[in-house]
Amino acid sequence: MFVLMLIIVFLLGGKIMKEKFYLTTAIAYASGKPHIGNTYDVVLADAIARYKRFKGYDVYFQTGTDEHGQKIEDKAKAAGVSPQEFVDEQAAEVKRIWDLMDASYDKFVRTTDSHHKKIVQHIFKKMYEQGDIYKGEYKGLYCTPCESFWTESQLVDGKCPDCGREVKEAKEEAYFFKLSKYQKQLEEYIENHPDFIQPEARKNEMLNNFIKPGLQDLCVSRTSFKWGIPVDFDSNHVVYVWLDALTNYITNIGYDVDEVTGEFKKLWPADLQVIGKDIVRFHSIYWPCFLWSLGLPLPKKIFGHPWLLMNNDKMSKSKGNVIYADELVEAFGVDAVRYYLLHEIPFASDGNITYDLLIYHINGELANVLGNLVQRSISMGNKYFDGVVRGTDAVEDIDLELESKLKNLENIVEEKMDALQISDAITEIFNVLRFTNKYIDETTPWVLAKDDSKKDRLQNVIYHLLESIRVCSLYLEPFMPSTSEEIRKQLNISDTSIIYNNCNEYHLNTPSVLFQRIDRDKFFAENVK
Q: Taking all residues of the chain, what is their mean pLDDT, rounded to a whole number?
């Protein structure tokens, strides 16, 4: 095996090939400004992408906007602009929010891009010619906001089961994809690949509520509106949203029906597709069947993350309970918002956001546990050793305990991140930071400083504090990239090893406050009406 690796390295000109990791988010619907719940999707994916890069993977992270459909056509008309002008503005706004949140995507795709439209037409035609798409007539109940057809039995209290809005009867000529053809294959695949849909509750929901009761053929074209990709062999029809939107994951990495690029061969299948739980059905039922129709392998994993609720209620503009990312960033800063989203939304159940909760966690974890630790430790290094701190031989058991916790952090965080338990990974890092604060209380450096004979012991205590902060800052980078960078700037050290290193020499900078404590009453008086 070692000889084989050497041969591969030689053939690559001495470069070690990194393992690829292709990660996608759902593409945001370009019908309006994304709220903080929509934004969670890209922040979550970004944390995973950054962690994988941190672990040495060759990461390709794709996100973007879904820009066709009747809803957008209607909104553009109401705004007095063309649909293209409307989505240009909306896509720019989505990208602005994603950039504001420090999303490190490699590509921002748009379904109005000319190459995407061309390949979708090729895909539609291929599926039609091989008999997976046929022309028929659709008569059913249609929800315009969700762009979904429903049967009477699927409605909840006579309304759309996804959004709870009114549905209307619709009848039109349409092309259909033979979803029913893949019923058995899909059922067997999901049952034989237990990790394909995460968390498990989503998998069970798909199998028991949607697949096993029987799949009906899927409407994949419309004639009642024009804002979509035209079916090139039948100009009365435009390609319906899910065939258009879902295929972005392959059309933008070099796929076409007659040929594929080296990039596509390298990247596909996707390693992880991050989506909201409300669109798991489309990604775990429609998408696999589309891929099988094209003769392509399925993505390795689909993660249907939970929702972010506002005061334990689903965010909705009509309810007036929507919060936007840029408003939160202006009030609290990017990394504080990222921290809250990533730490306070569990793996499998909905999270909740309120201004009270944000302030509580910023003051508790970010200002007290992290910020106070960094400022105290660097200040003591500057005060007692003029900012130059080295390790010494004056080691005690509590030092070894801290070293052990830092050493064990690598496997613990990796286990949590691989299981997509992002919140738990952050908790483990903060557990080490809490222990480091406890370490200060137990070693009492201010007492050691009063005894000249304890100078080596004092220096070793402060050295251990700085090393713990350095290592933890590296682990925090995927979640709070700017804060992580600022901590290392204050430490003034470039060592990026993720284990305790007893050979560093610190030349510390002047510390500054990472997170200001927030006066709750003052904040509410000034910001919340």
A: 92
| Cβ pair 132, 181 in contact under 8 A | yes
CA angle, 243 then 244 then 247, to 5°: 75
> Can you tell me the distance from the alpha carbon of 223 to that of 185, in angstroms, rounded to the nearest whole number?
31
- Torsion 66-136-224-156 (CA) sign: negative
Residue type, 320: G
* Burial class (CB within 10 angstroms; exposed 0-12, middle 13-18, buried 19+) of 88: middle
Instruction: Determine the Cα–Cα distance for residues 81 and 78; give it in Å rounded to an integer.
Output: 8
Cβ proximity of 353 and 314 under 8 Å: no
3-class DSSP string for 405-452 = HHHHHHHHHHHHHHCCCHHHHHHHHHHHHHHHHHHHHHHCHHHHCCCH
Q: What are phi and psi of 66, to 5 degrees?
A: -100, 120
Burial 276-287 (b: 16+ CB within 10 A, else e): bbebbbbbbbbb
Terminus-to-terminus CA distance in the chain, angstroms?
Answer: 66
Token pair 């069970």 in the structure block, residue: 204
**Each residue's pLDDT tens digit, 150-189:** 878 788 888 888 788 889 888 889 999 999 999 999 999 9
Letter string b/e over residues 426-444, b meaning 16 or more CB atoms within 10 A of that residue's CB = bebbbebbbbbbebbeebe
Question: Whole-model pTM?
Answer: 0.92
CA gap 475, 404 in Å, rounded = 16
Q: Write out the H or E segment, with its range, that includes residue 264.
A: helix 262-267
Q: How far apart are CA 279 and CA 300, in angstroms?
A: 17
Number of H helices and number of E strands within the chain?
22, 17
CB of 50 closer than 8 Å to CB of 105: no
In this structure, what are the phi and psi dihedrals at residue 140, rounded to the nearest 5 degrees?
Answer: -175, -165
Q: How far apart are CA 360 and CA 368, in angstroms?
A: 11
Could you report the per-residue pLDDT of 423-472, keeping only the tens digit for each? 999 999 999 999 999 999 999 999 999 999 999 999 999 999 999 999 99
pLDDT on residue 457: 97
Quick check: 310 pLDDT over 90?
no
